[in-house]
């Protein structure tokens, strides 16, 4: 029995005397701040992402591969980490060496990769947050935490919601969720900002609309 099983066992024992038909929690709280169109919601997402110092780009699906190639070239990336389910055409025009995610990859190997490209599960406009859930186009959590440069592709408006409650409705809590609000950063007691402490130093977000 591992630690996870012990903890879940204690939770189940603590809830053993709770009736199964107990009245559910009230969820009548405000689900969205204001009323926005789909386009306005996407604009708010872009604004909040930029406020967190993410670099935001917009393109159509037909322009996506060329944009990714340009961003990798501007970064000087020679290698790019690729989740197993990333659509092949996203990188078909790139001369950068593709490194495929492997369970045997060590942190040192991942640290030598210049960039990583992923999709996302959902993007939350009001908080400027991207959520990854380990789906095939996103890969395992560590591939987006170790490389210094992360390009995240968001389908708009389909993957964009206004609020956290709306985002939670789309997510499976049993999956490994990674919540990203801008590049990794922290500050010391003198409020000197340091980026790249526990994740990528540079986050680039591509908002992809229909052709």
In short:
With 211 residues, the protein is α/β, with parallel strands linked by helices. It has helices at residues 3-14, 38-51, 64-75, 107-111, 164-169; strands spanning 55-60, 79-82, 97-100, 115-118, 122-124, 129-132, 149-155, 160-161, 178-180, 185-187, 193-195, 202-209. 32% of the residues are buried.
Describe the structure.
By secondary structure, the chain is α/β, with parallel strands linked by helices. The chain has a single domain (36-209), classed as NagB/RpiA/CoA transferase-like (Rossmann fold, 3-Layer(aba) Sandwich). 23% of the residues lie in helices and 24% in strands. The protein contains five helices and twelve strands. It has helices spanning 3-14, 38-51, 64-75, 107-111, 164-169; strands at residues 55-60, 79-82, 97-100, 115-118, 122-124, 129-132, 149-155, 160-161, 178-180, 185-187, 193-195, 202-209. A six-stranded parallel β-sheet has the order 1-12-7-4-2-3, sandwiched between helices. A four-stranded mixed β-sheet has the order 8-5-6-9. 32% of the residues are buried. The model has no long low-confidence stretch (mean pLDDT 90).
- Radius of gyration equals 19 Å
> What fold name goes in the CATH topology slot?
Rossmann fold
Helix/sheet category: alpha/beta
- Chain-averaged pLDDT: 90
**Biggest beta-sheet profile:** 6 strands, parallel
- Poorly predicted runs are none
What's the overall geometry?
globular
Q: Helical region count? A: 5
End-to-end separation in angstroms reads 52 Å
Q: Kindly estimate the percentage of residues that lie in beta strands according to DSSP.
A: 15-25%
Give the total of domains: 1
Extended strand count? 12
In the CATH scheme, the class would be: Alpha Beta
Helix content: 10-25%
Strand ordering within the main sheet: 1-12-7-4-2-3
